[in-house]
Amino acid sequence: MQITVKCKLVPSKGQANLLQAITREYIYAVNQIIANFVAADQYLKYSSKDVVANLPSAVKNQAIQDAKSIFAKYTRAIRANTKRKPEQQKEVKIPQLKKPVVIWNNQNYALKGDLLSFPVIIAGKSKRIEVKTVLTEYQRNRLIGKLGSLRITRKSGKYIAQIAVDMPRQEINTDKMMGVDLGLKIPAVAVLESGKTRFFGNGRQNKFVKRKHRSMRKKLGKQKKLNTIKKRHDKEQRWMKDQDHKISRQIVNFAQQNNVSVIRLEQLSGIRRTARTSRKNEKNLHSWSFYRLAQYIAYKANLSGMKVEYVDPKHTSQKCPVCGKHNKADDRNYKCGCGFKTHRDRLGAINIISATVADGNSLPA
Q: Do 246 and 286 belong together in one domain?
């Protein structure tokens, strides 16, 4: 499987100027190629000689590949739009890169110790520069696989290197499964086939933190402090991502401790329409990324040699696992006429273990 290792770059002032120049040139080259594809309504034959930009030849070739990929997404969007009814059709804008970025393939950069070397244009010629990187022990351990492309971006004034790595996949040779149910009041519940259960996260804390940020943004909005509002939103997003990372790590660790080989999750398509919540929780429902948590679980599970399956969520919160009868839960308590009773979210995780595998991939939620 392929993962992405991110590390901070510490360029000198001169190197920062070179990075700023090459990212601008790369964006310009990609956008120009895309515009030419759109004007011709087809792919055009391009080589590095046809790209007019102050870039090394290898980077020009990467810009061509990037433009082809973006144009392919654009044409798919156009085709999908034409299939809609006239009143449902929307304008499909020509895609353009805006954020600073540049990409090198794995043959045109090298990482030795704390130095990352790659070619840039200096005085009209392609020359390699060595930029200092900040790598943690965890990142170094992830860079032992086969290195793929190098992508350098700029965010908040800092340059970040994103290195693709092909990691060897380790298989866990057991037949044990675990079901995981995602929610708001309880972010995640995991149940093993043996019935062993673990609850993850604190929904009340999540709700409090989100309500606090929402209240502060409302107050700042009245004061028209737009930049402060943006910073507050970014802070909330970072906190949410951190929570998802911690919960997903705990879930995968729990699976490892119990020799689980397959983790099962609900297919997330339409979860916002079907999730169990009250009116007072509606704002939290539409701002919480169930999909991101599921992706983090899948990512960490695959690294640990476990498979992830997505199942049809239909009736997982209503079906009795003993007699098969459908019942509605009373608040957080589920009780069936046959005598079976449990926590509502635990019931969902139990039924996920035996649910039918859904067709296709889960959709963003």
A: yes
CATH number reported for the structural domain that contains residue 348 in this entry: 3.30.420
Q: How far apart are CA 29 and CA 122, in angstroms?
A: 18
DSSP strands (E only) in the chain: 2-10, 101-104, 110-112, 115-122, 125-134, 146-155, 158-166, 177-182, 188-192, 197-200, 262-266, 307-311, 333-335, 341-343
Dump pLDDT digits (tens) for 263-286.
Answer: 999 887 655 444 444 455 444 444
166, 187, 207: which is the final residue of a domain?
A: 166
**Does residue 12 sit in the same domain as residue 31?**
yes
Question: What is the b/e burial string over 326-362, where b = at least 16 CB atoms within 10 angstroms of the residue's CB?
Answer: ebebeeeebebeeebebbbbbbbbbbbbebeebeeeb
d(CA 240, CA 255): 23
pLDDT tens figures, 63-79 = 999 999 999 999 999 99
For residues 24 and 100, the answer to whether their CB atoms sit within 8 Å is: yes
